[in-house]
Design goal:
The protein is mainly alpha-helical. α4 packs antiparallel against α6 and α28 runs antiparallel to α29. The relative contact order is 0.07.
């Protein structure tokens, strides 16, 4: 009598579980070409969620197969898998003791990293190790086909950009399509170069086809213009060539590969050196831009922002040497060891070290760093074992080893990203499959004396876990992400955005660090009146006020939840403080104002060298006319980095409010020397006070410095066109400045400064020419009593005839 099968066993036996896993693995390789619209961080979130759902389904299929049919999992002799699990365990331990454990486990929408991401990469490796030798070629070819599609899209995008830019050399812009970032694209393409090389050396029949595919992908790498990847490819090729030279057959052919790689390295080095030495030569103009970038690498320029992150990571490691701050928490490291010098060269917001090894050291400590390096050691050991077993040729060994070197060089300047890292894991699984024979799934024959019993309870549990994972970490984050995108891109009313607020307030997921920030920024935009009616208008409307109340309540609740999860994140406190300022203004509440002050103080405490929160705090004090406290806060901001202009400008504003004119003047002049230009009103206010005090010459120097810093010397000599809109206040200054020099009897500067008016408005050239002629002929009397070169008359007729002149004249007519 035939044995009755459990329903789940019937399902598992109805189709080939291995075929399903192969299909799912092939589908997962489509990650780089998934770019749907309507998402917050569209190049990151949909891809990661897609990849995770596919891997979760694949693991469920594997579990079902193991529960029925006498199959077992044999993970002995799997050093790469063991090292991956060890790194996952180290990262989990670090996350448990992290100051922001939730963020460390699940990351955020911008990166979708953390322990949860690495868990899926480890499971991806496990699924790949279930493949048999005959399955591998399908998967590798599938990966290469997707890589070729990305390469063609990259080349097409670059060709279009080069055509639009009209550069004859065709190397004008870095391509990023369809990954959205040229640096991350280059790493992904580097993996595909290795895949093409490996397939070429393991297939005599299609070798030429694979080599052609490899050259196409290599061209796309050049168009991506990423120096780290090119450097990694060159050094990886040198290592590969050396391996071929040492292990290749004893014939003259074995020297072809090393000679080619050495020649390639020499060409790259020589061309870069030539461009650096002779940048204006005809040869240099036709060099690919990536070599221009290699030649122009200079730690004294914007590259400093990267080394600042490296130094911060080292200091962060010193803070928590054993377990680190937790994966995905470089932003906490950067806040604690912030370098205000970054304001002069780059953004002040960094969540990546741009050196994966230093980031691992700072975020997972010594334990995580050793485990991460152990992955590379395990790959190297397995490569050696596969070669000794005869399952890898010297050429294949060279390609796979060279890739490891190249990716390591890349990661010294970048970080792991799903698009490239999933292929690195795929190649690691390929190496593991060459190191042993067959799959890690062992199958017993149907007539075996002892057959593994079915485990229906485990199978059912796996399906329940799959459903929970897909809903909790797939569907729910996807909905929340789309709600964030709708708020972020909204140009409608609060009533239209509030349903998205409601959805986010009920979101139970854990990748929420952007939620309160986006909600607060939306309310702030209402306060500025950029969306619909401003908050001031909504206060007196009962229906509108109820909507605003809900928006504030849900936003504050979102901030409270996220700050509870990430208590050391200074930027969360700064954004919460900004929202509290809006609430204080809307409700006219001193309580909210004090809470905003407390939030800004907390942000300053967590990151004492970050200047932005000091400026926000000073603004709160200044708006309440508490200039003495504002002066203290802004003086500390200036001390944080004396070479920054904005804190000095804000300090000048506070000095003006406090009635300290000379101190304000000193701060304005020093901020201009540092290249910072603020709102024209403060220069007008300070200049007018100087004129009232009889210091017109000092006022003239201030106006002159202001115009020159803002518009460069072109404002005087017309060496280049001024093609940006000119505010009426600047036209007023340009028309007033020459007359100050006339009163000071400095004809030369009067004539020179008059050129600014015609530079701003060429239609005023006749007036300027008349002024220059009169001053040159010493006919100053008719100009001394005027306040502007413009025809300043009062009345509606004057306004209608020349509104610009009317507005400019009005700025100096009063009290002068």
């Amino acid at each position: 009598m035939s044995e009755q099968l459990h329903p789940l066993e019937k399902i598992s036996s109805a189709v080939s579980w291995r075929a399903v896993i192969v299909v799912l693995l092939l589908v997962s390789l489509l990650v780089p070409v998934i770019v749907p619209s309507g998402f917050f961080f569209p190049y990151v979130v949909p891809r990661n969620i897609f990849f995770r759902v596919i891997i979760e389904c694949g693991v469920a299929v594997l579990v079902l197969a193991l529960c029925f049919g006498g199959k077992t999992l044999d993970l002995r002799s799997e050093p790469i898998f063991c090292s991956l699990v060890a790194f996952l365990a180290a990262a989990s331990l670090s996350a448990i003791f992290s100051p922001a454990p939730t963020h460390s486990f699940f990351g955020d929408f911008e990166r979708m990293g953390g322990v949860w991401a690495w868990l899926h990469l480890v499971l991806f490796f496990l699924l790949l190790r279930t493949l048999r030798d005959e399955d591998w070629r399908r998967v590798l070819n599938g990966a290469l086909v997707v890589g070729l599609f990305v390469s063609v899209a990259t080349i097409a995008e670059h060709s279009q950009l080069a055509l639009l830019s009209r550069f004859p050399d065709g190397f004008a812009y870095a391509s990023s399509s369809p990954l959205g970032n040229s640096g991350l694209l280059a790493a992904y393409l580097m993996m595909n170069v290795a895949l093409a090389g490996y397939l070429a050396f393991t297939s005599d029949r299609f070798r030429l086809l694979y080599l052609s595919a490899g050259f196409l992908v290599l061209l796309a790498v050049v168009y991506a213009e990423n120096r780290s990847t090119v450097l990694g490819l060159v050094l990886g090729a040198l290592v590969g060539g050396l391996i071929v030279a040492i292990l290749g057959a004893s014939s003259r052919k074995k020297w072809i590969a090393p000679v080619i790689t050495v020649a390639l390295a020499a060409v790259v080095a020589g061309v870069s050196a030539g461009v650096r030495a002779f940048p204006a030569s005809a040869f240099s103009r036709h060099v690919p831009t990536v070599l221009w970038r290699l030649a122009g690498t200079n730690q004294g320029s914007s590259e400093q922002s990267r080394t600042m992150q490296w130094r911060a990571a080292i200091e962060g490691f010193k803070d928590r040497p054993l377990l680190g701050y937790g994966m995905e928490n470089h932003n906490l490291v950067w806040s604690a060891h912030f370098d205000p010098g970054v304001y002069k060269i780059d953004t002040d917001i960094f969540d990546r070290t741009h050196n994966q090894f230093l980031e691992t050291l700072a975020t997972t400590g010594l334990i995580g760093s050793v485990a991460f390096l152990a992955i590379w050691v395990a790959i190297g050991v397995t490569l050696g074992r596969a070669y000794r077993a005869g399952r890898l040729s010297a050429a294949a060994l060279a390609v796979l080893s060279g890739l490891q070197v190249g990716y390591m060089i890349y990661l010294f300047f970048w970080f792991v990203d799903l698009n490239a890292t999933m292929l690195w894991i795929l190649i690691a699984a390929l190496i593991a499959s060459r190191g042993t024979v067959g799959s890690v799934v062992l199958e017993t024959s149907g007539n075996a004396p002892e057959r593994t019993p079915a485990r229906p309870a485990l199978a059912l549990a796996s399906l329940v876990v799959l459903a929970a994972a897909i809903y909790g970490e797939g569907y729910a984050p996807l909905r929340a992400n789309r709600a964030l995108a709708r708020i972020d891109s909204s140009n409608g009313s609060l009533a239209q955005a509030l349903p998205q607020f409601d959805e986010l307030s009920s979101f139970a997921g854990r990748q929420t660090s952007h939620v309160p920030v986006v909600m607060g920024q939306f309310i702030g935009s209402l306060g500025s009146g950029s969306l619909g009616s401003g908050l001031e208008d909504m206060r007196d409307n009962p229906d509108q006020r109820r909507l605003v109340d809900r928006a504030f309540d849900e936003s504050f609740a979102a901030f409270a939840r996220e700050i509870h999860r990430d208590t050391l994140n200074d930027r969360l406190y700064a954004h919460e403080g900004s929202l509290l300022v809006e609430a204080a203004r809307f409700y006219r509440s001193p309580s909210y104002r004090q809470q905003a002050i407390d939030a800004f103080h907390k942000a300053i405490e967590l990151s004492p060298h970050r200047i932005q929160q000091r400026l926000l705090l000073a603004k709160v004090y200044s708006s309440a006319r508490d200039y003495e406290r504002a002066l203290v806060v802004l003086s500390d901001a200036v001390k944080s980095d004396p070479q920054l202009g904005e804190p000095r400008y804000r300090l000048a504003e506070a000095y003006i409010g406090a009635g300290h004119g000379d101190s304000a003047l000193a701060m304005l002049q020093s901020s201009l020397k540092l290249g910072y230009v603020g709102d024209p009103a403060i220069y007008l206010a300070s200049g007018k006070r100087l004129e009232f005090a009889g210091r017109s010459n000092v006022a003239a120097r201030l106006y002159s410095d202001y115009l020159e810093v803002k518009y460069t010397e072109a404002v005087w000599n017309r060496s280049e066109a001024i093609d940006k809109p000119i505010p009426t206040a600047d036209i007023a200054v340009a028309a007033h400045l020459p007359l100050l020099y006339v009163r000071a009897r400095d004809s030369e500067l009067a004539i020179k400064s008059a050129a600014a008016l015609s530079a701003f408005d060429p239609s005023r050239a006749p007036i300027v020419d008349q002024f220059v002629s009169d001053i040159g002929a010493r006919r100053r009397a008719s100009w001394i009593a005027k306040n502007s070169l413009l025809p300043c008359t009062s009345g509606r007729a004057a306004r209608s005839r020349d509104s610009v002149a009317f507005g400019a004249c009005g700025m100096f007519r009063r009290k002068l």
